[in-house]
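Long-time lurker, first post. I've been practising inverse folding by hand and with some scripts of my own, and I keep getting stuck on stretches where the C-alpha cells seem ambiguous. Below is the full C-alpha cell string for one chain I'm working on. Before anyone asks, I'm not after the true native sequence, just a reasonable design that respects the backbone. If someone could post their per-position residues I'd love to compare against what I wrote down in my notebook.
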C-alpha cells in the first residue's frame, strides 16, 4: 500500500508543479519536489535511528509515524486547486482561466491561456495516450522518459543512501560512526537541492547535469583509488583516509543533489505535450522505481564481488549519461510546456526522427 501511495505521488506532483509554475521559474518550483523528498529521507533516517533503540516495538512507531505526512498530503490534495491545463482539458475553460489569473497574479494571461486551449483541443483528439506516445513524433520524449530515471538511479546514489551504514562499516568505521556518516550524507543531499533551485532557471538544465556528472565521476574515481590501494594493503582505512572518503562521498552527494537528483524528475515532467503528459510521467515513475528495486536488490552482491570497483562501475554509468546529455538533451530553460515540441524539431539529432507535421500540431 505504501508503494501505491509513493507511485501516485511521484506521478502527480512533478506534473502538477510543472503545469502550475510560470515558465521562467518552472525549474526551481519543480525542484521543490526533490527538496521535500530529500528532507523526508533525512527525517526518516533520523526517526529510524531513534526508534531502533526502542526494543522491541520501535519499528512499529517508525512505520506508524509515516501516517502523519500522508495525512498532510491528503488534506493538501483536497485544498489545492486543479491546474488550468487540466480544467481546460475537461471543458471547464472559464474556471481554468480564473485559476490561471489567480496563480499568475494578473488578468493579462490571454497568450498563455490561448496556448493551453489549443494544446487541449489537440489533446482531446488523442484517445489512447499510451499508444500515441509510441508514435514517431513522441519518440524523443519517450526516450528521455526512460533514460532520465534510469540514469538517475545508475549514478549509484540510492546505493549510497540505502546502504551507507553497511558501506561505511566495510571501510572500517564503527557502527555508530557509520550511522552518523549516513545521516551526514542525507543532510548534504537535502541542502544541495537548494543550489539547484537557485541555479536551474539561470544556468539551465544541461549545465547542471553536465557539471554534476563530471563532479560525480571525479569523486567516484577518487574513492575507488583510495579504497583499492589502502584497503588492499592495510585491510582497513586509517582515520585520515576515512575522513577523506567521507568528504569525497559528501561531494558526490552534493553534485547529485544539484543535478541528477532533482533534474531526473524535472526534465521528464516538462517535455511532454498535454496529450501524453500523464502517460509519459507514469513511464518515468515506473522506470525509476523499477531500477531502484534492481539496484537495491543487487548492490550488496555487487559490493561483495566488485569491492572498491563498485565505484568505478557507477562512474562508468555517470560517464555514459553525461555524454548522453551533452549530445541528446536540448535546453528546456524558459521554454513554455506547450511549445516544448519545437525543441526536438530544431535539435541536430531528433529533427531527423520527428516528422515535419508535428511542428504544425504542436504550434
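-- Answer (accepted) --
I ran through it position by position. Result:
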Amino acid at each position: 500500500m505504501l508503494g501505491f501511495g509513493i507511485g501516485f505521488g511521484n506521478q502527480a506532483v512533478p506534473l502538477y508543479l510543472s503545469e502550475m509554475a510560470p515558465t521562467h521559474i518552472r525549474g526551481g518550483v519543480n525542484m521543490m519536489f526533490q527538496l521535500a523528498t530529500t528532507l523526508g529521507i533525512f527525517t526518516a533516517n533520523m526517526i529510524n535511528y531513534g526508534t531502533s533503540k526502542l526494543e522491541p516495538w520501535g519499528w512499529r512507531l517508525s512505520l506508524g509515524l509515516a501516517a502523519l505526512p500522508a495525512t498532510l498530503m491528503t488534506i493538501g490534495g483536497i485544498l489545492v486547486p486543479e491546474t488550468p491545463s487540466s480544467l481546460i482539458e475537461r471543458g471547464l475553460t472559464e474556471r481554468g482561466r480564473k485559476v490561471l489569473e489567480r496563480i499568475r497574479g494578473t488578468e493579462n494571461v490571454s497568450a498563455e491561456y490561448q496556448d493551453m486551449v489549443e494544446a487541449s483541443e489537440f489533446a482531446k483528439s488523442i484517445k489512447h495516450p499510451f499508444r500515441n506516445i509510441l508514435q514517431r513524433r513522441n519518440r524523443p520524449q519517450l526516450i528521455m522518459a526512460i533514460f532520465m530515471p534510469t540514469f538517475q538511479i545508475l549514478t549509484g546514489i540510492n546505493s549510497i543512501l540505502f546502504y551507507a551504514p553497511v558501506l561505511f562499516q566495510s571501510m572500517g568505521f564503527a557502527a555508530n560512526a557509520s550511522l552518523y556518516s549516513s545521516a551526514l550524507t542525507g543532510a548534504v543531499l537535502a541542502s544541495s537541492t537548494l543550489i539547484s533551485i537557485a541555479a536551474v532557471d539561470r544556468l539551465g538544465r544541461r549545465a547542471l547535469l553536465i557539471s554534476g556528472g563530471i563532479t560525480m565521476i571525479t569523486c567516484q574515481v577518487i574513492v575507488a583509488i583510495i579504497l583499492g590501494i589502502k584497503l588492499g594493503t592495510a585491510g582497513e582505512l586509517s582515520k585520515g583516509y576515512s575522513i577523506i572518503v567521507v568528504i569525497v562521498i559528501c561531494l558526490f552527494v552534493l553534485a547529485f543533489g544539484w543535478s541528477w537528483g532533482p533534474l531526473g524528475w524535472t526534465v521528464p515532467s516538462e517535455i511532454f505535450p498535454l496529450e501524453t503528459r500523464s502517460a509519459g510521467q507514469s513511464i518515468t515513475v515506473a522506470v525509476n522505481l523499477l531500477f531502484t528495486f534492481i539496484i537495491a536488490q543487487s548492490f550488496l552482491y555487487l559490493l561483495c564481488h566488485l569491492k572498491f570497483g563498485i565505484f568505478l562501475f557507477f562512474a562508468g554509468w555517470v560517464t555514459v549519461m553525461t555524454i548522453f546529455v551533452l549530445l541528446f538533451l536540448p535546453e528546456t530553460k524558459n521554454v513554455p510546456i506547450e511549445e516544448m515540441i519545437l525543441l526536438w524539431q530544431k535539435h541536430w539529432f531528433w529533427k531527423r526522427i520527428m516528422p515535419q507535421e508535428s511542428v504544425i500540431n504542436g504550434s
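A couple of notes from the structure itself: The domain at 132-352 is CATH 1.20.1250.20 (Growth Hormone; Chain: A;). Residues 341 and 362 are 6 Å apart (CA to CA). Happy to go over any region you disagree with.
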